[in-house]
Specification:
five-stranded antiparallel beta sheet; 1 helix; Chitinase A, domain 3; 5% helix; four-stranded antiparallel beta sheet; 149 residues; 40% strand; 2 domains; Thrombin, subunit H
Length: 149
């Protein structure tokens, strides 16, 4: 007996179960993949997936398998120099033991946190990059649609 969902095609507010793999097209390096683990279930329109990927999923039905190419900055946004900040070490919580080339969750005044990559580190300051690691880069995203509600 086949237990795969036979619901219709994906629409703008579908709940979708899928496998996906994000790769860097120039190197074929896999950045993230659910194919070897548990499929993901995501609500379209809720900000759980890249808006540009959601748009390409519309109309796909269970069983579909596709690979989408996203040009530089199309998937994770453009790289912005404005999101690179030089922060005085005295303004960084002492509980954060910083190391160069490491991503940390930096607290925001509203209580939320933002991931940032420590690009440079001196005794008095740190250069923090708050861009997504794939911002400004091209990626390929392979998807396999398992179920749609």
């Amino acid at each position: 007996m086949n237990t795969t969902s036979t619901a219709g095609a994906i629409h703008s507010h579908s709940l979708v179960t899928l496998n996906f793999r994000v790769t860097h097209p120039a190197t074929s390096q896999t950045l993230i993949s659910t194919f070897e683990a548990t499929p993901a279930t995501m609500q379209l329109g809720a900000g759980e997936l890249m808006a540009t990927l959601e748009a390409r999923l519309i109309g796909l039905a269970p069983g579909a398998r596709k690979t989408f190419h996203f040009g530089p900055g199309e998937a994770f946004g453009p790289y912005s120099e404005e999101l690179v900040e030089r922060v005085q070490r005295r303004h960084i919580p002492p509980s954060l033991y910083l190391e160069q080339d490491t991503v940390y969750a930096f607290p925001a005044p509203d209580g939320s946190s933002y991931p940032g990559l420590v690009r440079e580190l001196t005794e008095t300051e740190a250069l923090i990059d708050f861009n997504h690691p794939m911002a400004g880069k091209a990626v390929d995203v392979e998807v396999e649609i398992i179920g749609v509600i």
